[in-house]
Amino acid sequence: MAAGLRLHLCPRLRAFAAASRPLFATAHSGAIPLPLRRAGPAMPLAACARRGLSSSTAAAPPAEDDDFATAADLRFEPPLQVVKYPDPILRARNKRVNTFDTNLRTLADEMFDVMYKTDGMGLSAPQVGVNVQLMVFNPAGVKGEGEEIVLVNPVVYKSAKRLLPFEEGCLSFPGIYANVMRPESVKIEAQDITGAKIKVKLSGLPARVFQHEFDHLLGILFFDRMTMDVLESVREELKNLEKKYEETTGLTSPETADNYKGTKDVFSFSR
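== Peptide deformylase ==
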């Protein structure tokens, strides 16, 4: 069994994160950051998704298509709060982003702040109540260390056949930890905070964190990936969160752990 993993916040993974290779080729302290690069065949990605590298706004014309987020969809008010299960926001459709402006960069910055304050490694926009295709993560889990990655509209186009178990947790499921099987590596396409297209392979811890956050963008929650025996070990804890939701909101829980029947295919990256 691999060392325990708590996505967003596992202290036991700090050494693992520190020892892991960078997600992208990183400039050494004091060196000039590598320039943004657009996706191309077999071209390694260097620094293209790192936070704060943008020097200008790259905005596509607003689409009238319902697949894309409107200004209202991207509206938020700090301080952001983590959405807890079983809030229906976590299952809602997350729209693609086609406007890369100051508001989007501010949202990403606010998400990083929440992530670090909650001892996190990654965070998706729906987890802070904004249903768009945006995630931020830093496998080092410490502000000022590692790489701060922002991915917009990510797509997985290939995943490894080898599956690895890790103990995951989630900020939207406080206090719940359990093993989840996931592919060892994934190849992804996405856009960075400026709208530039990127293409990269992630493996190890970065791949694990990415897949957890990517699932959130699909409305998939980490217990959806658990085997039945693992799910049984956390079922009562899930029901306790449902009860807390009902007591706090006065609403009936939109879903219940009593209905969960098994694992979602780990190779399936669709809802």
